[in-house]
Automatic annotation (TrEMBL):
Annotated transmembrane regions: 64-86, 106-129, 210-230, 291-315, 321-351
Compartment list: Cell membrane
Residues annotated as domain ABC transporter: 386-625
Superkingdom of origin organism: Bacteria
Keyword field: ATP-binding, Membrane, Nucleotide-binding, Transmembrane, Transmembrane helix
Descriptive protein name: ATP-binding cassette domain-containing protein
Length: 629
């Protein structure tokens, strides 16, 4: 094929298929707003204000007191301002020379100026108080969300819609940035509206209902628009969730090589854009609805507003109200109208926020309900014996158990190797052994105690795990080793753990040795190679000196010298603990006292290396394949 052919093929090739439609089904796929009436939506606002007040109160009581004080001052000054304006109008529009009329109005005008200044000052102080509350409130809610996710039973991650609801809850955190401002503006507008409306009612009782009618359609429109916005947000949750994850994988420098050398960029960008377009399409499809809402509400509001001004003009012209009263009424109408509009806009914003806060709260409640509740017993070291008795575990949504009736006894000092094909249940078995998952059937006991009755932290204090895929924490070398078990300020045990995995030279070569930040992305940070990172993960597990040490493919990225050193180390420290090695490199199972071979979630074979290697079974077959090159 010539290069021209290739080029032609490239230009005529059909575009790649768009990303699959991502949606989840089941109880969480229904928009909670779909069944809520308009009245119930409005009725939520006081409850939301109450919730915002409680959250703020917990964050900074003094700032909340200051904020409420400012609201009272705002209201009082608005009322005084209008009343004094009315009083100033009488001499201004009365008889006498211009000088006399002005002199007569001066005391009332001074009160007007003072009230206006006080109102402005209260507004400024309220903004200051709000700025004191918001950052800490956002941090509180954000941290609460992170903590809730870290503390749930790990099994919850595999459940339907968990991650999407987590994504929806993140929006609640984002909304806390504007929530106090919205609530504060809503309250202050409400107070201004009540006081100005009160003054207006005193001047003439017909004006207020007319004004209310003028603004009400805008309120209905704003709430309906918020509802449409939320519907779109809800429909886009799953797409946004995946897009967010893809964005991270595509742009993080850690996977930059893979993206480039596999020419993934075009498709990733296409894919990212396709997902964004799909979100946009949903948003655009709703635009005519929001336009209709805006036009109808403006039309209805406009009709009533014209009626209000016409009524005022008619009453003044026909002498039904005095000219001075009419002049004050104009100001009162303007003030009430402005306040009412603010009430509507900020009320809708509070309502809008409430939708996302409800998602966040629902997720936090759900996460709290999924926090481990396993019983109050505590485990005490050392771990002498771990037993699995006919253990079964099935992931949600799967039709077959990942671990299916496994019985096993492990004793202190033993090394167990677990081998088997991909997906045969090895990692799931280690999750059951460590109590990360509780079995659906059967039981796992440590020193004779059922893990279902034990507080999990006391179990995890005795475990050390090097998982297949481990995190590369953007922390200093020292914390990367001690993470999970910061002991003392003495670096000796840290260096011992680093020596144990043969990493001393590499750490000493780093710009700040143990103090070097391990993150290439951060200014001043350094990066390790894949194998060096894996040594760090091993050193972390060794540093913990755990009663149960689990190594899941611990040396897959290491050079032979590193691998040899790690396995020598495992043998050296094996007497004090139970050690489990999960591996596909069957040669490494020679260090084990016992090997189990997993197949379809069951133990297909078990024995020593020699028994299995020459036993003519599955292990022998896999071993032969691993040397057949
Ligand atoms: N978080 C999960 N949610 C749903 N199913 C899962 C999850 N983790 C594993 N599984 C399924 O459980 C089965 C066993 O997986 P497991 O990870 O235990 O296998 P493994 O033997 O460790 O495989 P490998 O050698 O590839 O690491 C597989 O069918 C897998 O698809």
């Amino acid at each position: 094929m010539t290069s021209a052919d290739t080029q032609e093929q490239q230009t005529t090739a059909p575009p790649p298929p768009p990303p699959a439609d991502i949606a989840y089904s089941g109880q969480y796929s229904v928009n909670p707003l779909a069944e809520v009436s308009f009245r119930r939506m409005c009725a939520q606002i006081p409850a939301v204000l109450g919730r915002i007040a409680r959250l703020s109160w917990r964050t900074d009581r003094r700032a909340v007191q200051l904020l409420l004080g400012c609201q009272v001052v705002t209201g009082v000054s608005a009322a005084v301002l209008l009343a004094a304006t009315a009083r100033a109008m009488e001499p201004v529009l009365g008889d006498g020379s211009a000088g006399e009329r002005l002199r007569g109005a001066v005391p009332a005008l001074l009160v007007v100026a003072l009230a206006a200044a006080l109102g402005r000052a209260a507004g400024a102080v309220a903004a200051y108080a709000e700025r004191r509350i918001t950052p800490r409130l956002t941090t509180e809610t954000d941290t609460a969300l992170v903590e809730a996710v870290c503390r749930v039973e790990a099994a919850a991650y595999a459940e339907e819609g968990f991650s999407d609801r987590h994504e929806a809850a993140e929006m609640g955190v984002i909304r806390t940035l504007v929530m106090v401002t919205d609530a504060q503006r809503f309250l202050s507008a409400l107070i201004r509206m009540v006081t100005a409306g009160g003054v207006l009612s005193v001047l003439n009782p017909v004006m207020l209902p007319l004004l209310l009618l003028a603004v009400l359609p805008a309120g209905v429109g704003a709430v309906l628009t918020a509802r449409v916005d939320y519907e779109i947000h809800y429909a886009n949750v799953a797409d946004r969730n995946v897009r967010g994850m893809m964005r991270w994988w595509a742009t993080t420098p850690k996977y930059g090589d893979e993206v480039r050398a596999n020419s993934m960029t075009d498709y990733l960008v296409y894919w990212y854009r396709a997902l964004s377009d799909r979100c946009d399409r949903r948003t655009l499809a709703a635009a005519p609805r929001t336009l209709r809402i805006a036009l109808l509400s403006s039309l209805a509001g406009g009709v009533f507003l014209v009626a209000t001004w016409a009524a005022l003009a008619w009453m003044a012209v026909t002498g039904r109200i005095a000219l001075a009263v009419a002049a004050t009424a104009v100001i009162a109408v303007q003030t009430t109208l402005a306040a009412l509009s603010q009430v509507v806009i900020n009320g809708a914003a509070v309502f809008h926020t409430s939708l996302y806060l409800s998602d966040m709260q629902a997720f936090l409640d759900d996460a709290a309900a999924r926090a481990p509740k396993r019983g109050p017993r505590e485990l005490t070291a050392p771990v002498e014996e771990i037993q699995l008795d006919e253990v079964v575990y099935q992931y949600p949504g799967k039709d077959k158990p990942a671990v299916d009736g496994v019985s096993l006894t492990l004793e202190r000092g033993q090394i167990l190797a677990i081998v088997g094909a991909n997906g045969s249940g090895k990692s799931t078995l280690t999750r059951l052994l460590t109590g990360i998952y509780l079995p659906d059937k059967g039981k796992v006991t440590w020193n004779g105690t059922d893990l279902a009755e034990v507080a999990p932290e006391t179990v995890w204090r005795c475990t050390g795990l090097v998982p297949q895929i481990f995190a590369q924490w953007p922390l200093r070398v020292r914390e990367n080793v001690t993470l999970g078990q910061p002991r003392t300020h003495d670096d000796t045990p840290v260096w011992e753990a680093i020596d144990a995995v043969g990493l001393r030279e590499a750490v000493e070569d780093l710009p700040a040795s143990l103090d070097t930040l391990l993150s290439r992305e951060v200014f001043g940070g350094s990066e390790l190679s894949g194998g060096q990172w894996q040594r760090i993960a091993c050193s972390r597990a060794l540093y913990r000196r755990p009663g149960l040490l689990i190594l899941d493919e611990p040396t897959s990225q290491m050079d032979p010298r590193g691998e040899h050193q790690i396995f020598e180390q495992i043998k050296d420290i094996a007497a004090d603990r139970i050690t489990i090695v999960v591996t596909h490199r069957l040669e490494n199972t020679k260090i084990a006292d016992r090997i189990i071979v997993m197949e379809h979630g069951r133990i297909a074979e078990h024995g020593t290396y020699d028994e299995l290697a020459y036993g003519g079974g599955l292990f022998a077959e896999l071993l032969a394949l691993s040397t057949d090159r």
